[in-house]
Design goal:
The complex is a heterodimer of chains A (125) and B (110). With 125 residues, chain A is mostly beta strands. Chain A is built from no helices and eleven strands. In chain A, the strands form two sheets. In chain A, strands 2, 4, 5, 6, 9, 10 and 11 form a seven-stranded mixed β-sheet that branches. Chain B is mainly beta. Chain B is 0% helix and 45% strand. Chain B has no helices and nine strands. Chain B is globular. The chains are: A mainly beta (125), B mainly beta (110).
Chain lengths: 125, 110
């Protein structure tokens, strides 16, 4: 059974930093792209970052987080991370760790077959 | 404002059929696969349809997807109260080189 468990969420002040982790199990983590999707309170889904499989040689960031967020993966630990800095009030959201269905994240790889339960990040001013 | 346009809400009676649309452009829906996600209240989204019209194992055949040109549809037949949820379409945009979600559609089963 595929499981994705996020951790690291919490309350942080505006301008601060936070790192979310996602531990994956139940599949060959090395073979799949991994993604972060967030959802602000009462709002829709926003695709924010992705990293390709294996050595993570290809990385994507949405304009809203580029330059502030850094995605990474540790295949030896089956772990996905996102380091978030210069946090703003509008970064307040539930952050989902999401498994892709391909080794790449774009085009036909833009498909999410398993989602974590989400980690709430609240940015206060 | 989302690049992919979905109706904010749809409603229908139990047992009836409903269609949720997702409208885009040649850069996204027109040239890439569409997937659909169901988000029940208070839970994480779940994959319903991928590659326009394919269902993952365990998804009932009451749920079906289609695509024509720059639009895609999610059809749900035999509506049940348990189908009340938010539904999102998603696809890649080859011009923006960005991943997209529609704004979401809230389904109410009256």
């Amino acid at each position: 059974e595929v499981q994705l468990v996020e951790s690291g969420g919490g309350l942080v002040q505006s301008g601060g930093s936070l790192r979310l982790s996602c531990l994956a199990s139940g599949f060959n983590f090395t073979n799949f792209a991994m993604h972060w999707v967030r959802q602000a309170p009462g709002k829709g889904l926003e695709y924010i970052s992705a990293i390709s499989s294996n050595n993570g040689g290809s990385i994507y960031y949405a304009d809203s987080v580029r330059g502030r967020f850094t995605i990474s993966r540790d295949n030896s630990k089956n772990a996905l991370y996102v380091h978030m800095s210069s946090l703003r009030n509008d970064d307040t959201a539930v952050y989902y760790c999401v498994k892709g269905a391909r080794y790449h994240y774009d085009s036909s790889g833009y498909m999410f077959d398993h989602w974590g339960q989400g980690a709430l990040v609240t940015v206060s001013s | 404002q989302s690049v992919l346009t979905q109706p904010p809400s749809v409603s229908a009676a139990p047992g009836q059929r409903v269609t949720i649309s997702c409208s885009g452009s040649s850069f996204n829906i027109g040239n890439n696969y569409v997937s659909w996600y169901q988000q029940l209240p208070g839970t994480a989204p779940k994959l319903l349809i991928y590659e326009n019209n394919r269902r993952p194992s365990g998804i009932p055949d009451r749920f079906s997807g289609s695509k024509s040109g720059t639009s895609a549809n999610l059809d749900i037949t035999g509506l049940q109260t348990g189908d009340e949820a938010d539904y999102y379409c998603g696809t890649w945009d080859s011009f923006l080189n960005a991943g997209l979600f529609g704004g979401g559609t809230k389904l109410t089963v009256l």
